[in-house]
Design brief:
The chain has 638 residues and is an alpha/beta fold. It contains 17 helices and 24 strands. The chain starts with 24 loop residues before the first strand and ends with a helix.
Amino acid sequence: MGCFGATILPFVIVVGAAVAPHANLKRQVSQLRPSYDFVVIGGGTSGLTVANRLSGALASKNTLVIEYGEVRFAPGQFDPPTEWTTPAPDAPPRWTLRSLPNPEMGDRPAVVLAGQAVGGSSTINGMFFDRGSQHDYDAWDQVAGPGPGWNWDSIFPYFKKSVTFTEPSPDVAQLYNYTWDVSAYGGTGPIYSTYSSFQWADQHVLGSAWRDMGVQPTQECAGGHKEGICWVPASQHPVTALRSHAGLGHYANVQPRANYDLLVKHQVVRVVWPNSNPKSGPPLVEVRSLNNNQLFNVTVTGEVILSAGALHTPTVLQRSGIGPESFLQTAGIPVVLDLPGVGSNLQDHSGPMITWNYSQPYDASQFFPLPSEMRNATFKAEATNAFGETPAQGPYTLAGGNSAIFVSLPHLTSSFRQITQKIYQMAAHSTFASYLPADLRTSEPILAGYKEQLLTLASLLEQPSSPSLESPWATSEHPNSQALSFLLHPLSRGTVRLNLSDPLAPPLLDYRAGSNPVDFDMHLAHVRYLRRLLDTPILQALGGFETAPGAAVAADDELLKSYVKEKSFLSFMHPCCTAAMMPKPKGGVVDKKLKVHGAKGLRVVDMSVLPLIPAAHLSATAYAVGEKAADIILGDWS
C-alpha cells in the first residue's frame, strides 16, 4: 500500500472509461448521412455538451459533430510517470499559438494552448474546476442586454446540472480541513469533480500566511460567493482520479447513440447560405478533410452550432464573410454580415509573480513529502503504485493543486476608488477609444459596447465581494516559492484575425496586454498586496526573504511597472469573449439566445460568447454555457 494509505469510499462508483469507438465515429465523407438536423462545429467542452443533450432529447433528429482532432487518451495534469512540473508524455495534441508582440509588455508574445482532440481544451487544461463569483455573471447579463437571463440565478442551475460532485471521505476532509456545501452541487452530470486525497506537506504554509493577512476561509466558493481562501475541486473521477473531460462524459460514455455522429480529422472552412443571403438559413457547412484536403458540403436542415472555441470560432465566421467589414474587404472575402465584434474583445487572465527563498531549508521531519521527492525513484514508484489503488491515492491524485485565494480590490488596496475613478473618467470623456485596436477606434458599435463594459467593470471592481486577484498554490517549496498574481478583470482588449497568408492556418492573435493603462494600476496593487506574505509570522519563522521584485522596486511605480512588463505571464490559458453576447449596436455578435445577429440557423456556443471574462478558470463555465444553450435550443425545437 506504500506510504500514502488508502481511503475506501462509502459507496461504489462505476468508473467512466473511454468506450471503444463505434460506427458513429466517422473519418470520411462517404460515411456521413445525406443531411443532419443539427451540426456542431467543434467537439470541445461546450460543443460536445450541446451535442450530447440534443441527441439525447431529440431521438428523431440527427446530430453531427465535426472535430479537427481525434479521439485521444487524455492524462491528468499530474499523472504517472510525470514529475510535479514536467509535461505528460502521452498528452493529446494541442495548438500552441503565439500572439503578436505586446508593445506595452516589452514586445513579448502571449503563448496560448488549445486542445486539439475530442473534448477540446478539457483534455489538456489544469483541471482546476472553479466557478466565477455571482457578480461576474450578473455583470455579463447586464452588458448582454434584454432577453433571457444569463445572470447568476439563471446559470447556477446549469453549473449544478453539468457535474457530479463527490464529497471527500471524512478522514481526508479532517486531515486537510476541506470544507464544502453540497447545495452548490446536487447534480448528476456526466463530468466528475472531487477533492484530492493528498496535499503536499507545506500546502498549509501559505494557507496560514493568507489568514495572517486577514484573508478568511470561505466554506464553499462554487455557490456564488467567492472572496477569500477557497478549496477548489478538480475535474477528475473520484475513484480513479483520472481526468474527467467532455470527450468521455459527453461522447464516449453516451455511445452508442444512433442519432449522434462524430466526424474527426476534418476542419470546417466556413458556413455558406444560398445566394449569400444569411436570412435564408440554415447554412451549408463546408468541410475540409485533413487527410486529403477534399472539400465537401454538409447539408443542414435545422441549425448549425458553432463551437470551435474563442480562438477558432472567429476565423470560421470571418471565412464565412461575417466580421468587421474593413477587415473582410482587406482579406478579399465577400461581406455577408458586417459584425465588427467578430474576433474583437479578446480577453484573458494575466499577471506576474512574487518570489522568495528561505534562509534555512525546510525541516524534513516537519515537511514530508514535498514536490522534490518526485525525483526520488523509490518515492516516485510508491506514488505510482498508490495511484493504481482503488480508490487512487497519493501525489498523483492532486492534479495541479486545489487551493487559491480570491481577493477584491477594496480588500487589497485602500486606493481602489482612485483606480475605479480612472475607469469612470475614461468612459465619461471617451478617452478609452485610444486604447482599442487601431481599426476599431472609429467603430461606433465597438465604442458603445466597450464604454458599457468599462462602466460595468468599474462597478464590479468596487464590490467588496467581487474578486480582482487570484493566487493559486499547492506548495511553496524552493524553487516553487512563488505567489502568482491573476488579473481577473482586465480592461485591455485584443483581437483574433484570420491569417491572410494562410486562411486555414491557426489565427493571428493580438493580445494587446497592458494597452489600457488601468490594468497596470491593478497589477501594481496586486503585487504590493502579495508582498505582504513575507511579513507574516509563519514565513518569518521559516526565514523567508523576498527575491523579486524586492522592496526598492516595489516602492517605485515605474520600477514596479517595468517588473510587471518583464515578468508577467500574458496568458493563463483562459482566452474568451471574441464573439460577445451583446446587442448588435454595441458590437455584439450573438443575442441572448446565442443566435448570430442577422444569420438564420447559426448559433455560437463556446467561451467566445462571454462579453466579460469571469473571475474563474473557464472549464466549469464552458460546461454550464453548453448545458444552458442546449436547453434554449431544445425549447425552440420542442
